[in-house]
Amino acid sequence: MSRFTILLAGPIRPTAALRAAVAGTRVIAADAGIRHAAALGVEPELWVGDFDSERDEAAGAGVPRMGFSTDKDETDGEIAIRLAVKRGASDLLLVGAFGGRTDHAFAHLILALREAERGRRVELRDGTECGIPLPEGKTLRVPARPGAAFSILKFGDLDGLTIRNARYPLEDVAVPFLSILTQSNEALGPVELRLRRGRAIVLVQEEGRT
Q1: Using CA atoms, how far apart are residues 131 and 93, in angstroms rounded to an integer?
Q2: What would you measure as the largest C-alpha separation in the chain, in angstroms?
């Protein structure tokens, strides 16, 4: 199986939709991300990290561990992703990527963009929000309920951005990095996005059901 879930340390809401997304995937937990395994009904095949933020041995009882020094040049999440790719991952679901420490959340967004640019399918979910990197030169159709809030998070200037089936559509526009034009839009249903050039992630509010 090439779809892997990476359990990260950010907070989650274990909704039915999130549990369904995780079900049937191979799972690797990064340090404190092991806490989410029970709530999501999964058993990781590996638990990695420096274990500086998770000391609850019961949470990972029976899970094979791979420890790393705190003096390293990779985050625990980055290590988990690297090992998932080594085990054949072509599809990554990053759970618990948002919230918690802001620098960690920012790092997870960067990692998602990096893996997407390497040709892997990537989603970030926590039961409240779903993030998907925008591919260059391709149309991305994003599932969204009518009325759902969504934003385009930019990581530089964007060229040729199109947003369709939204309250505030755009058609082939340039959006400077310092503009907040792409914040807080509203879906009319599934949203169609296209980006000619640039780096961005669409962040959609998911329906709040447990």
Answers
A1: 10
A2: 52
Q: Report the DSSP pairing between strands 149-154 and 185-197.
A: antiparallel
- What is the rounded distance in angstroms from the CA atom of residue 5 to the CA atom of residue 88? 12
Nearest to 83 by CA among 112, 114, 49: 49
How do 65-67 and 91-95 pair as beta strands?
Answer: unpaired
> pLDDT for 166-194, tens place per residue?
999 999 999 999 999 999 999 999 999 99
CA distances from 96 to 147, 190, 195 (A): 24, 24, 26
Please spell the DSSP secondary structure of 7-67, one letter per residue: E-SS-----HHHHHHHTTSEEEEEGGGGGHHHHHT---SEEEE--SS---GGGGTT--EEE
User: Could you tell me which residues come within 8 angstroms of residue 172 by beta carbon, excluding any fewer than 6 positions away?
Assistant: 160, 161, 162, 196
Task: In whole angstroms, give the CA distance from residue 46 to residue 182.
Answer: 38
CB 198 within 8 A of CB 156: yes
pTM of the complete model: 0.91
Q: What is the pLDDT of residues 132-159, one digit of tens each?
A: 999 999 999 999 999 999 999 999 999 9
- Residues in a beta bridge with 30: 48
Neighbours of 153 (CB within 10 A): 16
